[in-house]
Amino acid sequence: MGEAVDLVRAVEASGKIYMYAENCAYMNFAQEMAYLYQKGEIGEFRYGEGEYVHPVSRDTKISLAPTFEHWRNWIPATYYCTHAMGPIMYVTGLRPVKVSGFVMPWDAESPSSRESYARNDLGSVLMVQMENGAYTKLLLGGLQKHLLWYRIYGHKGEMENSRMDYQQLLVHKEPWNKQPGEPADLI
Fold first, then answer.
1. C or N terminus of the chain, fewer CB within 10 Å?
2. How confident is the model over 65-105, as pLDDT tens digits?
């Protein structure tokens, strides 16, 4: 905890922004989402979803965490939420104020867990209240099928990156929220 306090003090003294293990907010689709959000395309943030699901093989787990005592083998799934939450915060400019979470416990049936040193949670679901009262649901962990997916609902529309092509952005507006001649869906 002392190191955490020292880190906070150093960041505050620098006047800079500290970024810890977050690169998803700088992917093309997230940059475009932020641009459209700032232009007011979908209105004010009401609800969002972020999914960072990253299964890895037994060999990869062992290479990243080669001993039983390694922190990666014990870290709760709720702790590693930056890739799921980062783009939501980046796009909307909002910060979380309350969090409630649930974990899916270690999976003894999964060969990549059973045959490695990992004993941490399989994954987690977090419900996050943002500073404007909106909510965000996060799914993260080592479930099956890699996912890097985000959805942002505003009061005038919705946007999300495609689950099939992460760099493809989809924007939807209901007929009463679009301009005459404007399509309901944009890709």
1. N
2. 899 899 888 888 888 888 999 999 999 999 999 999 999 98
How does DSSP classify residue 174?
A: -
Paired with 99 in beta bridges are 128
Would you call 151 helix, strand, or coil by DSSP? Answer: strand
CA-to-CA dists, residue 39 to 25, 42, 91, 92, 173, angstroms: 18, 9, 11, 11, 15
45 DSSP β-pair partners: 154
What are 133-163's pLDDT values in tens digits?
A: 999 999 999 888 888 999 999 999 999 999 8
CB 187 within 8 A of CB 161: no
- Measured on CA atoms in the order 34, 35, 39, 41, is the torsion positive or negative? negative
Residues 64, 72 contacting (CB under 8 angstroms): yes
Give me the residues paired with residue 186 across strands.
171
User: Is residue 21 classed exposed, middle or buried when 0-12, 13-18 and 19+ CB atoms within 10 A define those classes?
Assistant: exposed
The answer to whether the CB of 159 falls within 8 A of the CB of 32 is no
CA gap 172, 149 in Å, rounded: 16
> What's the pTM?
0.84
Rounded Cα distance between 96 and 111, Å, is 35
